[in-house]
Amino acid sequence: MGTFTWASGARYHGEWKDDKRNGSGTYYWLDGRKYEGKWRNGDYHGWGVYSWPDGRRYEVPVMRGEWKEDKKNGKGVFMWANGDRYEGEWKDDKPNGRGVKRWAKGDRYEGEWKDGKQSGRGKLVHPDGRSEDGSWENDLPHGGTCLL
């Protein structure tokens, strides 16, 4: 266990192995951001929380989930500052696999994702109760999608 402060003022407090962040620890940026969680060979790895300070308007205020080599990988929850939220599987920082995205305006998509886009089987439910069920490709209905 130890603390290191870089010339930039950023600092890390946590476990180390072979002079690299390894195990549990917290990295603090000067602007108030921080990552608290697991590390391997100096990179985010496993479960952790990446957060921004309250009151700031960033695209993404919170990520909870699995990280691998500084990217979201595995299962996690991502919340945007505008209230949108995605919960599901990630690969290389993008929704990939099964997941649910809820938009702040009330729409909800449950289904398959590929490279950050709705692709495969899924269902989009609108706030007024209408839904679109079927196949999706690059965020658009594709083929046999039914409006219900």
From TrEMBL:
It comes from the Eukaryota. SMART domains: MORN. Keywords: Repeat. Residues 111-148 are annotated as: Disordered. This is MORN repeatcontaining protein. InterPro entries: MORN.
